[in-house]
């Protein structure tokens, strides 16, 4: 009896293993229509699809990670089992999402009928990212999916993923030196791991702040009488700043140092731009107190330009203005050409959710 039980158990395990291998071999992955947005379930309108394509292409065109969106009707349509994780990992690796060296790809997979979704991350990301992706799924995608507002949930969730992996929202990403450097720093953080950066980042920022402070505090002589000058305190120097300058300091768009000569009382005002401020210089009052909001009016497509509206408002002189700019046409994808993806791979990192 014992021998029979062992034989039965071995046969069952062998059957299960073979069955799982057969099931896995029966999985078929779809051919992609383009390298950014593939809606096989047909739940996105053309305008929504073009807008998402533009967002994801903007990231890729500016040295960012490759982020792709795939919407399917059912896992069963491709011979996959009920679990979305192995299908997402297999699809990611089958297409080769992301750059081969950095492995920085991101796959957003939504299975409508199964009411499941997955954010699959390339193996270049640390596992610390998994919780962040889970939070985006739970707070940005699922609440709208529960109300059958798929287009809205996918749009908001995709925007949050872009912000999470690039540090910028769509519309703020450009190909400037600062933007490219930011992408590289973010990638370094993921590669080294959060615990390493928790040690390195404060040291680096501390050294940078110290060097900048020493430069600003360097001894200087009066340009009139050549005597020593001293820097006034933050409260005392406000007397020598006008309203616009004080507002710039409040908004942290500019910081001012006021130096006074110990002999002739000459005043020097030194201006330092805030490194991370989004405020621009207002043409009406010439203070760096001009904010801007960008709204996409018409998304660009591969056949026509888009349009966006930029609304300006000055916190100082209350100037308001609006301008409309064109958005360049989207470059055409190479379709099913395998060279469209960079050959990246995933080892199963990411997060899943259901509704």
Overall description:
The protein is of the alpha+beta class and 355 residues long. It folds into three domains: 22-186, Diaminopimelate Epimerase, Chain A, domain 1 (Roll), CATH 3.10.310; 194-273, no CATH class; 281-327, Single Sheet (N-terminal domain of TfIIb). It contains eight helices and eleven strands. The chain has helices at residues 2-25, 46-61, 84-95, 128-145, 150-166, 177-192, 194-216, 243-251, and strands at 37-39, 67-72, 106-111, 116-121, 229-231, 254-261, 267-273, 290-298, 306-314, 320-327, 349-354. The strands form three sheets. A five-stranded mixed sheet has the order 1-2-3-4-11, with helices on both faces. Helix 2 (46-61) runs parallel beside helix 5 (150-166). The longest helix is centred in the N-terminal third of the chain and has 24 residues, at 2-25. It is elongated, with a radius of gyration of 27 Å. 29% of the residues are buried. Mean pLDDT is 82; it is low at 11-24 and 332-339.
Count all strands and give the number: 11
For the report, how would you describe the main beta sheet?
5 strands, mixed
* Strand/helix succession: HEHEHEEHHHHEHEEEEEE
Strand arrangement, largest sheet? Answer: 1-2-3-4-11
Mean pLDDT over the residues? 82
CATH fold assignment of the largest domain: Diaminopimelate Epimerase, Chain A, domain 1
Class derived from helix and strand content: alpha+beta
Low-confidence stretches: 11-24, 332-339
Q: Helix segment count?
A: 8
Share of residues in strands: 15-25%
Helix content: 25-40%
């Amino acid at each position: 009896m014992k021998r029979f039980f062992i034989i039965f158990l071995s046969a069952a395990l062998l059957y299960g293993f073979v069955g799982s291998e057969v099931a896995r071999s029966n999985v078929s992955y779809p051919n992609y229509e383009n390298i950014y947005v593939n809606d096989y379930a047909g739940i996105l309108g053309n305008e929504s699809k073009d807008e998402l394509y533009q967002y994801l292409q903007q990231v890729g065109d500016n040295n960012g990670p490759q982020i792709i969106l795939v919407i399917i009707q059912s896992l069963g349509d491709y011979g996959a089992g009920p679990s979305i994780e192995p299908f997402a990992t297999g699809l990611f690796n089958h297409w080769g999402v992301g750059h081969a060296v950095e492995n920085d790809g991101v796959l957003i997979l939504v299975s409508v009928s199964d009411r499941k979704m997955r954010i699959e991350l390339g193996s270049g990301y640390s596992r610390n990212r998994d919780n962040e992706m889970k939070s985006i799924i739970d707070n940005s995608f699922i609440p709208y999916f529960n109300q059958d507002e798929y287009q809205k949930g996918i749009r908001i969730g995709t925007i949050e993923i872009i912000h999470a992996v690039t540090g910028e929202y769509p519309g703020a990403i450009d190909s400037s030196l600062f933007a490219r450097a930011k992408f590289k720093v973010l990638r370094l953080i993921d590669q080294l791991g959060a615990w390493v950066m928790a040690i390195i980042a404060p040291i680096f920022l501390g050294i940078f702040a110290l060097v900048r402070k020493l430069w600003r505090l360097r001894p200087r002589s009066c340009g009139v009488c050549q005597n020593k000058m001293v820097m006034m305190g933050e409260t005392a120097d406000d007397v020598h700043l006008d309203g616009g300058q004080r507002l710039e300091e409040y908004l942290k768009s500019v910081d001012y140092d006021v130096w006074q000569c110990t002999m002739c009382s000459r005043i020097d005002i030194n201006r330092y731009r805030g490194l991370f401020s989004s405020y621009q210089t207002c043409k009406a009052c010439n203070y760096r107190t001009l904010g801007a909001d960008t709204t996409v009016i018409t998304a660009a497509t591969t056949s026509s330009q888009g349009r966006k509206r930029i609304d300006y408002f000055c916190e100082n002189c209350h100037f308001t203005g609006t301008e409309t700019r064109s958005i360049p046409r989207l470059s055409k994808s190479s379709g099913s050409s395998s060279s469209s993806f960079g050959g990246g791979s995933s080892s199963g990192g990411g997060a899943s959710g259901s509704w």
